[in-house]
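Hi W., the zinc ion complex you wanted:
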Amino acid sequence: MRFPSIDIWEIEQLLSPSRCIICNRYASELCLPCSPTPSPMRVRLPRAKQPLLSSLIYDDHVAKIVLAAKEDNSRLAQFYLAKQISALVAHATHHIDVSSLLFISVPSTSRAITARGYVHMDRITRFLTSPLPIVRGAGVTLQSDKRVRDQSKVHSLQRSANVQGGFSVRRGSMTEIAPDVGIILLDDVVTTGSSMRESIRALNTVGIEPDALISACISPRLASNRMVPS
Ligand SMILES: [Zn+2]
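Structure:
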């Protein structure tokens, strides 16, 4: 049975109003002074065909929100990141001619999943909204096959080598995808793009090409690859 987490969350919200993820003042998700200003952008992802859509630059402040979502399992932080991604999904659907959407997430390492007790991106995707119907439950799941070293402690060249050949489509997760289904590859943070490129490579091996790449946050360096708005 699926745990009806959102309904219980709504009840919790009525019983105890939420507090700002960062400063703990009463506010929905984030209080105004703590709210980063989302700025939707399309950036060139080196060695990828598709541009990457994102809206937040991953600075120390945004990192606190991501950390709360990822490591503290903060539903408010997860909801906040999902809101950013949902806005980007709405933007992406203007550029692709499809009738429904399938979301595929860049996988976490099995070590991270075991340590957290949950799949971080699943927590975010359950809050996603979309102007088109979302294909849920059935679809394609990516998995991380080898022990990838802690990404935060290696520099970018090592990082690329680190994830190479590391992801695959989980056996049994692959179902027939209708041609009118738009495929969106999602992540919460893209730093160098190596995990996203590795996800594309793994999907390509089973004949899937994502229609759009979306990440809630990107590194300042990737943000400098910003493309002219279209
Ligand atoms: Zn605050």
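Residues 20, 22-23, 25, 30-31, 33-34 surround zinc ion (CB under 6 Å).

W.
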